[in-house]
């Protein structure tokens, strides 16, 4: 019998959270702390994390699960925490993939170490864990949504500024300042003034001194953890910038919309969710309107490239993959690749855990079909695995970058 996290533990338990979204978690941590939770986001990155993961999770299991569990075990063994007053928290999408077993795998790893008394929380909306102890009331949900939207906006702007910054580190310094200032608005309800907040973000980011040197844009897609987590993808964004490229990443709220859209697809295809279909539709419309506020602000200013409308992403993938393909990242991954290519980002890296059947099908498996329609597309599927050589991964990326530079020179000559 596992230990449950109860509401009275909020006062004296520190909740450890695995890293995934570096900017977004700067918002999420204080948002949840405002509701009485004590949070620490683990930003550790060392070889011992992978070793602990391999020691507690079979190497054929999902690589993100191995990393998350390895990061938890590494933290608990570090001596930094009072193990009688610590809890672990993960998010779960609840799809038909091995990630839905994170919770049982983590509890099994804790039991093996003799730590079965440490409670584990699951934040999910699919009924995987009905008594996790996380009290998600409406105000907390709304603050979390706005935190995700502002994290998406800052991530989108960062990737158009940091590769060009004259004074290294200035972009992240400005982002940290804006996050600190924005958290005050989360205290007084001012976080809903999104138009003003987005204009301020854009003004602050475009004020950073930048070079005029053009850089090739490279899209990053993939399994959600591998796509965003520096621990998972070997700091891919930083590596691309270091090599003189501009990374392009869609926001995490697009994945939320993908999950909502799948509810609508279930209703259309299988007549499921008949009672909640209307709620799915309202949620989709609300989130897309909230995203539009940022997109309109970017277009009105004219300094930066605006993200694609999610409805355009949906349409981009329809000729290539059926919406009923929704295991893992499903139709979203293919749609994002096609949407990137249509918007001029013809160089794309697909980050996938080795052995993840759903993502191999919708990523590597769809590459040939996409290149038939877009012969100039330069797509590099990269497998991430504890046994995969970092040198081999880097060489694959370098080959993609070399092709990108060659294609750019040929376009200039034409």
TrEMBL record:
InterPro entries: Dehydratase_Activator_Redct (IPR051805). GO terms for molecular function: kinase activity. Keywords: Kinase, Transferase. It comes from the Bacteria. This is Putative nucleotide-binding protein (Sugar kinase/HSP70/actin superfamily). It comes from Catenisphaera adipataccumulans.
């Amino acid at each position: 019998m596992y230990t449950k996290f109860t509401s009275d533990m909020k006062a004296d338990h520190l909740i450890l959270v695995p890293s995934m979204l570096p900017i977004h978690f700067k918002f999420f941590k204080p948002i949840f702390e405002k509701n009485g939770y004590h949070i620490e986001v683990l930003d550790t990155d060392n070889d011992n994390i992978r070793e602990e993961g391999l020691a507690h999770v079979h190497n054929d299991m999902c690589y993100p699960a191995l990393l998350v569990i390895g990061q938890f075990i590494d933290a608990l063994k570090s001596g930094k925490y009072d193990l009688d007053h610590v809890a672990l928290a993960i998010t779960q999408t609840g799809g038909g993939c091995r990630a839905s077993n994170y919770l049982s795998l983590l509890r099994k790893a804790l039991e093996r170490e003799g730590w079965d008394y440490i409670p584990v929380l699951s934040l999910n909306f699919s009924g995987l864990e009905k008594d996790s102890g996380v009290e998600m009331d409406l105000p907390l949900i709304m603050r979390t949504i706005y935190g995700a939207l502002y994290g998406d906006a800052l991530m989108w702007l960062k990737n158009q500024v940091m590769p060009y910054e004259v004074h290294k580190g200035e972009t992240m310094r400005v982002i940290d300042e804006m996050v600190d200032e924005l958290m005050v608005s989360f205290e007084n309800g001012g976080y809903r003034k999104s138009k003003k907040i987005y204009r301020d973000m854009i003004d602050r980011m475009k004020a950073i001194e930048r070079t005029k040197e053009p850089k090739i844009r490279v899209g990053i897609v993939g399994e959600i953890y591998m796509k965003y987590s520096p621990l998972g993808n070997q700091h891919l964004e930083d590596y691309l910038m270091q090599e003189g490229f501009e990374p392009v990443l869609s926001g995490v709220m697009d994945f939320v919309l993908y999950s909502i859209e799948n509810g609508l697809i279930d209703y259309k295809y299988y007549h499921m969710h008949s009672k909640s279909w209307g709620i799915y539709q309202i949620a989709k419309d609300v989130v897309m309107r909230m995203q539009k506020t940022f997109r309109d602000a970017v277009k009105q200013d004219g300094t930066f490239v605006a993200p694609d409308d999610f409805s355009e992403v949906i349409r981009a993938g329809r000729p290539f993959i059926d919406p009923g393909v929704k295991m893992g990242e499903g139709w979203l991954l293919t749609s994002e690749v096609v949407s990137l290519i249509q918007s001029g980002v013809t160089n794309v890296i697909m980050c996938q855990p080795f052995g993840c059947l759903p993502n191999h099908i919708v990523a590597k498996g769809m590459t040939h079909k996409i290149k038939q329609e877009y012969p100039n597309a330069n797509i590099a599927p990269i497998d991430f695995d504890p046994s995969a050589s970092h040198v081999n991964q880097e060489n694959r990326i370098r080959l993609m970058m070399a092709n990108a530079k060659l294609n750019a020179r040929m376009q200039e000559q034409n």
